[in-house]
Amino acid sequence: MGQGKSQFTEEELQDYQDLTYFTKKEVLYAHQKFKALAPEKVGHNKNAKLPMAKILQYPELRVNPFGDRICCIFSSSHDGDCTFEDFLDMMSVFSDGAPKAVKAEHAFRIFDFDGDDMLGVTDLRQVIDRLTGQQHLSEQDMQHLIQNILDEADLDDDGALSFAEFEHIISKSSDFANTFRIRL
User: Which of 21, 50, 51, 144 is deepest in the core (most CB within 10 A)?
Assistant: First the structure.
């Protein structure tokens, strides 16, 4: 039982290693994981694009309340469908090797539902709803929680969190980088 020939040239593997937080071996492993999501579609087509529904079958994404948002943020077409390069970028950012600042930038984009580069009340409400799942908060509790978040993190009192304010609050969380990850 020999190892099959890689779909990637040595130069492509080197490029992927240079552009991610992965070794060449980890890039190949990520491709195996991507291919396993839809072997019939990926096959020997390294440029295959998988629909978000297939990507969301990845175990850690399947149970993540932000799985669809993660796919959309990393999708080069912004519709949640992912090429291998999109998938590799996603896995790289969520890897142990990615710096906390890179993780914070992507977390902010995932939580910025309306794409206005601010985490406003509507964004925060959606984040809380997804985190609480079936345990919906009363409207009063929701408003109280959002106000507490803004009281703690909204340094310029504009009613929303900028990336700088988000990054500041994340810097106080020692376990943020450990919780913001997906294992290959």
Answer: 50
